[in-house]
Amino acid sequence: MEIRPLSTHTGAEVLGVDLARPVADADRETMYRAFVERSVLVVRDQALRPQQLARAIELFGTILAQHNSRFAIPDCPQIHYVSNQDRYPDGRRYIPGEGWHTDHSNAARPPKATALHAVQLPDEGGDTQYANMAAAYEALPTAMKERIAPLIGIHVYQSSHSARKLMGLSDTDKERVPNAALHPLVRTHPENGARSIYINPIRIEGVLGLDHEEALPLLDDLLEHATAERFQYRHAWKSGDLVMWDNRCLLHKANGDYDMAQTRYLYRVMLQGDVPR
User: Fold this and answer.
1) Is 33 domain-assigned?
2) Nearest Cα to 53, choosing from 69, 29, 73?
3) Cα of 20 vs its chain's centroid, Å
4) Is 193 left (phi over 0), alpha (psi -120 to 50) or beta?
5) Quick check: is 276 in a domain?
6) What are the respective helix, strand and coil percentages of the chain, to the nearest 5?
7) Which domain holds residue 148?
8) Is the separation of the CB atoms in 247 and 113 below 8 Å?
9) Could you tell me which of 45, 63, 137, 182 has the fewest CB atoms within 10 Å of its CB?
10) 136: part of which helix (H) or strand (E)?
11) How far apart are CA 257 and CA 84, in angstroms?
């Protein structure tokens, strides 16, 4: 097994391991350490069925039930699919993952990690971009760090301020999916101690104790700063890639810049996280 960095601050690729076979404890620990240190782990050349993917991801934590069960794989509901072939009820194409966000932040314990496994890809395009929120936090002016240190974000399933609209939930899903959660705008990583900006444009409704006239410009400024190109790693997908990223210190977004006559289809799974602090 070999692990190589993919950028100066984010991303590491893993070569020479087959997650469909038993993985030695030492290799698992090495991969997980790279994940914590580099935030995005790219395991190349995998060919995993849903049940195999579930077993592989359980090397790194406990699988979390995802919010919208309409995307669940019938014979392995822990695994969902991500596809450009779904449409909203009004007929518009649904591009999952559009717009900067972190997954399921409306939960009291948002997922620590999300993993995607490429099954079918377009000939070109469809990259996933990641913004390193720890690096972005470190680059903030001291005055801004002090301003946001005590602030708490209000996270809901679908922010009324978001330009991107999520796919609707079934009545059953609405009963089990958390309605709202309060999380700090600056969270400390429980495993490496790094502090990072923790916002989510798709789910954050406001900031506790601030009116929208103050909160929304602040959130916009933080997002503009944090998603600057110097904090980004852009992943160009290859067939067989399994990519796992750290929701505790990253924003990510998918790009719909490819031929929609071609199918983009990936498996998705999440790992349980902890309460942001």
Assistant:
1) yes
2) 73
3) 23
4) left
5) no
6) 20, 30, 50
7) 2-271
8) yes
9) 182
10) helix 133-138
11) 11
Q: Which amino acid is at 77?
A: P
For 127-148, b/e burial (b = at least 16 CB within 10 A) is: ebbbbbbbbbbeebeeebeeeb
Task: Give CA–CA dist 176/188, Å, rounded.
Answer: 27
- Smallest CA-to-CA distance from 149 within 206, 107, 197, 210 is with 197
Total number of residues shown for the chain: 277
pLDDT in tens, 89-138: 999 999 989 999 999 999 999 999 999 999 999 999 999 999 999 999 99
d(CA 158, CA 248): 19
Q: Strand 113-120 to strand 265-271: parallel, antiparallel, or no bridges (unpaired)? A: antiparallel
Q: What is the pLDDT of residues 51-101, one digit of tens each?
A: 999 999 999 999 999 999 999 999 999 999 999 999 999 999 999 899 999
What are 130's two structure tokens? 């990641």
AA identity, residue 144: M
Residue 233 lies in a domain: yes
Residue 273, C-beta contacts closer than 8 angstroms, at least 6 positions apart: 64, 109, 110, 111, 112, 113, 247, 248
Spatial distance between the Cα atoms of 245 and 17, rounded to a whole number of angstroms:
18
Name the residue type at position 23. Answer: V
- CA atoms of 267 and 56, how far apart (whole Å): 13
Calculate the alpha carbon distances from 180 to 65, 70, 191, 205 in Å: 17, 21, 25, 9
* E-state strands within 84-133: 113-120, 128-132
Q: How many domains does the chain have?
A: 1
Question: Does the residue 239 lie in any domain?
Answer: yes
